[in-house]
Amino acid sequence: MRLRIYIDTSVVGGFFDEEFKGATIKLFERLNNNEIIFVVSDLLDLELINAPQHVREHLLNYSADKFERVELNEDTIKLANAYIDEKVVGKTSLEDCRHIAMATIHKVDVLASWNFKHIVNLDRIKGYNAVNSRLGYSVLEIRSPKDLMNYGND
């Protein structure tokens, strides 16, 4: 069974960013080698509309079977709003909360992001998971792509 990794927009952009591209490229190599599957959302598609063309079209370089598609729905909207209501993050982070909610509801193995302020942040992760637990959802594993590289068996 391949690891199901939900990716947000920062991972796609990270492929082209000097600071993040090394680990991001290695994550995409794992995708190419069929070690993992990326779970992508309609929210990702919407966010990429405003990205530079090379970023916007990057995922088109991979076959559709490398991806599992999920959509924003009423449950994900309610869960995302709960994160805001519980003050895990402020209202300006609603889109980030929707990514977290989609990953939670679709029971991915891990969410990958380079967003250290609102997503890959221990205090935030504890907050998201406290809300998840209270509402009967599973704990969500949240990591940066650097944590998801394959280091081999050395």
Description:
This protein is α/β, with parallel strands linked by helices and 154 residues long. The protein has one domain (3-148): Rossmann fold (3-Layer(aba) Sandwich), CATH 3.40.50.1010. 43% of the residues lie in helices and 13% in strands. It has seven helices and five strands, in the order βααβααβααβαβ. The chain has helices spanning 9-14, 21-32, 42-48, 53-56, 74-85, 94-105, 122-134; strands at residues 3-7, 36-41, 67-70, 110-112, 142-143. A five-stranded parallel beta sheet has the order 3-2-1-4-5, with helices on both faces. The protein starts with a strand and ends in an 11-residue tail after the last strand.
List keywords for this structure.
154 residues; alpha/beta; Rossmann fold; five-stranded parallel beta sheet; 7 helices; globular
Q: Rg from C-alpha positions?
A: 15 Å
User: How big a fraction of the residues is strand?
Assistant: 5-15%
Helix content: 40-55%
CATH topology: Rossmann fold
Strand elements, count: 5
**Main sheet strand line-up:** 3-2-1-4-5
Instruction: Give the uncertain stretches in residue-range form.
Output: none
**Element order, helices and strands?**
EHHEHHEHHEHE
Morphology: globular
Measure the end-to-end span.
Answer: 23 Å
CATH C-level:
Alpha Beta
Number of self-contained structural domains: 1
The count of helical stretches stands at 7
Name the average pLDDT.
Answer: 95
Largest sheet: 5 strands, parallel
Kindly name the structural category: alpha/beta
CATH superfamily label? 5'-nuclease
